[in-house]
Amino acid sequence: MDAFSIREAVPGDEGAILGFIRELAEYEKLLDDVVATEADLNQALFEEGAVAYSLIAEVDGLPVAFALYFFNFSTFAGRKGIYLEDVYVKPEYRGKGIVSALLRKLAQIAVAEECARFEWSALDWNQPAIDVYTGIGAKPMDEWTVFRLDGEALRKFAEFGKS
Amino acid sequence: MDAFSIREAVPGDEGAILGFIRELAEYEKLLDDVVATEADLNQALFEEGAVAYSLIAEVDGLPVAFALYFFNFSTFAGRKGIYLEDVYVKPEYRGKGIVSALLRKLAQIAVAEECARFEWSALDWNQPAIDVYTGIGAKPMDEWTVFRLDGEALRKFAEFGKS
């Protein structure tokens, strides 16, 4: 099959990226949670004060995969890190090493930017992904649990001090 | 006991913040991992291109607690969120509601900045903290595990494609 190449996302990619986000959400059985628009992505990725960054993998000039990340911060290290929010490859382009190549490119960006670490999350039932992640030497942070406050619970807590 | 007040961190607070980070690391049995310096914190919090933000709680003008956060990004929401990296109250000032007040202030910032969500992590054995978090309506994201690549493993993967 065809070779792939990786490049930084540029304005005009927001349609392809939103398509990838929706396909990923469908795979994670979370499609109903996707309310992002192309305008949202354009603002977050490409406008002044951008908060996120994206890589695109292409085959014959066609986007077939993406990785979207932002910078977090380690207080212990006193340095920023890379957090990979999403990585997705269209099903017909899997098995070509595209995920590994995207992860490696992000690791290279992390090293170049003197980041303390490179992190991402996996759903516990997504064993194929977990096998890739442990295979490249990533450590599962098993002893930590993320807590989330959103929607009505967030608004109520902000307003009344409880949800 | 004395009342407390909450304010944004300003240049000059980096010494107090580093002290809090070290005390927190000691509580988490991770003090050896702290290599951050005051200069690192000054750059991350107060210089051009700051990547993190901090709130300070004071009693009688003395810093007794802090919360340090950054903005992450939800691809599904298409909006940024707040991620609380650290929150810590000096032992002698606990039980006064300072953690809840810091969390509430962050929830208010999240709402004001139109964030999709407000998140943070807890160690699974830190039941007192978990009780506070579930008490304010936060959901544990039990089905997700964070993976981390850092140190020599990160450098090797960036260079050779494996660690």
Structure commentary:
Two copies of one chain form a homodimer. Chain A is globular and about 55 Å long. Chain A starts with a strand and ends with a helix. Chain A is built from five helices and seven strands, in the order βααβββαβαββα. With 163 residues, chain A is α+β, with helices and mostly antiparallel strands. In chain A, a hairpin with a 4-residue loop joins strand 3 (62-74) and strand 4. The first copy, chain A, is 35% helix and 31% strand. Chain A has one domain (4-160): Gcn5-related N-acetyltransferase (GNAT) (Aminopeptidase, 3-Layer(aba) Sandwich), CATH 3.40.630. The model of chain A has no long low-confidence stretch (mean pLDDT 95). The first copy, chain A, has helices at residues 14-27, 38-46, 98-112, 127-135, 151-160, and strands at residues 5-8, 53-59, 62-74, 79-89, 117-123, 139-140, 144-150. At the A-B interface, helix 1, helix 2, strand 3, strand 4 and helix 3 of A face helix 1, helix 2, strand 3, strand 4 and helix 3 of B.
